[in-house]
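seq as requested:
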Amino acid sequence: MPVTSWRARALAGGVVLGATIVVVGVVGYLNQDWLIDRAIRHRLAHVSDHSFVNDPAQFQVLLCGTGSPEPSAARAQACTMVSVGGKLFVFDAGEGASKSLSDCGVALDDIERVFLTHLHSDHFNGLGALINQGWIWGRSQPLDVAGPTGTAAVVGALNDAYAIDNGFRMANMPELDSKRAAARADPVDIVIPLQAPSVRVYDAGGVTVDAYRVVHDPVEPAFGYIIRSHGKKVFISGDTEVSPSNLPAMQDADLVVHEAYASHLVRRAIPIMREAGMQHDAEIAERTIAYHADTIALAKQAEQAGVKHLALTHLTPYPDTAIKRHVFSKGMSEYYGGRLTVGTDGLVILV
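struct tokens:
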């Protein structure tokens, strides 16, 4: 093709493209009100989405926070939501929980109850915002929050911390005053009897939830939770080392959402940290290995328990790419033959 012909075609193409952009711009300008209204309707439809509770026959698990205390690319720290029997249950509410839930289309005022696994801050950092925002957006009753001994003290302090803000909001929106009681949470300290591994903490509408004692020393007590419905069983581990005492909770579970600690990566990182002068970071890494769930030990226990699907959460160190997720779970499939998922924020699992 002659150069002049190529240049002529390029010029013509540029003219057509420019004209198209102008036309699109003009059409958009002339119809900007329609476009704005359409965007508003789309946004409101998202905000008022109640799809997670619309089908009581569904048993779904949403990983709303797969992060740990370390800064990471995770949308939120520890947070898992279960939708079952037309109810929403949230297990742990780490930093970013309410935003992550909202981004996933969860209507915060639909949440039936929050269960805390233990009182490490990364498991309740986001609870205050969850209580407050659920009330602002329509919750008409106090939010029930249950967890190990100390939960009442933590929730009481959060209620007090948000009291001034609540007053300001009611002054600006008098309609909220009629829901004054809903601006807070009602806490319950769960106590598992001595020598008992678990206690039932919810039983309604064909759904049961049992708090199960796990091993996270020196944190005591620390719980996992067993949810049963529709003939299915789900175990949410909370933070725990891999312990024989957890085996009954995992036994024949359709889904286990379990914290996971890639010890093989952390052990390699510790001497490099020390070489770099990061003594404090190395010390923290070394101390946390013992009371978290090593990926390989977890794979072996999941196989022993006959777990059908193992989903990893509370990921340390956080794997923010596909390659890193592969490295994170390296070796697990050699010991566990079920379905294995390295969790990501926003992942919905049908049980």
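The chain has a mean pLDDT of 89.
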